[in-house]
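Dear support,

I submitted the protein below through the web form. The confirmation email said the job was done, but the results page showed an empty box. After a refresh the structure appeared. I'm attaching both so you can tell me whether what I see now is the final result or a partial one.
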Amino acid sequence: MKLEVEVTYKEIIKPSSPTPDGLRFYQISYLDQLTPAVYNPLVFFYPEICDTQANKIKISDQLKQSISNALTYFYPLAGRIMENLLFVDCNDEGIPFSEARIKCQLSDVVNNPVPCEINKLLPFKIHDAEQIPLGIQFNIFECGGIGIGVCISHKIGDALSFFTFVNMWAAIARGEKKLVAPEFVSASLFPPRNLSGFKPTITQTKEKIITKRLVFTASKIEEIRAKYADKSSFENQTPSTRVQALSAFIWNRFFTVTEVRSRPDTLCLIYQLVNLRTRIDPPQPEYSFGNLYSFTSTIVPPTDSNVGESCDHSLIIEMKASMKQLNKEYVKKIQDGYNHMDYTREMAASNAKGEMLIVSFTSLCWFPVYEADFCWGKPIWAGSAARDIKNVVTFMDTAAGDGIEAWVSLNEDDMAKFESDKELFAYVDAP
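What the results page shows now:
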């Protein structure tokens, strides 16, 4: 359903304590330089806790005070990004906080989420992250349920950094005293470099992009994994993970319904985004804040032989091999200045006569998405948003933790074919 949203209040929230002069300028890292200026978005939903005006005021004040306290730990988020100067000005200018009335029930959104409508619960447009690192929108539904919409600029923090902030903010809100402060070491690990003339962008297209949320139950995921694990020729291989199996399955259905194999000059690449914290020497803790990620590239030849279960298992083997290559030696190569986009450029140059098709897979499974307890319990659901980026798939655990949600963004024509695929929807629990 279409959401009717009325913003009723706006405020700038500043840190509860001023940032010391010695921390005024937060240096952007090399990986920050390579990351486009977009927001990482998420909305956390909680049941009827604002059922009276008094509770609404209490919850709003609790959120604002705890944000102010959290910003003293995450001081770059209260500043302004000065990308051309390679730093964040930690000037305590503050973060936009808004309140909005949503003219429907919380259950209307949670039981039948529409990705493009969830965007209305966010403080910013996703592709407008040039200067302000953080924004929060406090959404109140007619039933008293709430949705806390958070946007953090990908320019200075990856997905794990996002949850590090949100979960520490929640811990402060519920009165926790033992807090683990984030570490801002990304620029020392990946020093910024002279990238004159280079500006990372996400290709904006005139095509209409549609995002759909597909839910795969634990039993259906196991069926998909079993399809690939039963091949005798691969009996010595380790079983595929849930995410690997779903990635291969979704790629197979996309490849089939869009008839990529009819375009033999097409170079097909699968990207997998990877957390680097455990791959850096020495390994970094989860609470290391910044863009500490890279991605692997797996080439998939667009031929008729690339359809079927044996092909999917072969693809999984190739994806695993690509992941293994992202080791400490490769990370050291990035630290020394290697641009992980160069591989894509090299592939494009070698395939100058044909088109290049890239499908990106990001997994937030096992990330602490459902740990954000602000003193009124954990969220009943956390929802992502629609993105104007085609051929992108984001995996998230379901609220129960046993299934997986796939947020799939394709152009309008490809999505129409994708949604009509009976084999795909034989495994999907909820569109």
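Response: this is the final, complete result; the empty box was a page-load delay. The longest strand covers residues 5-13.
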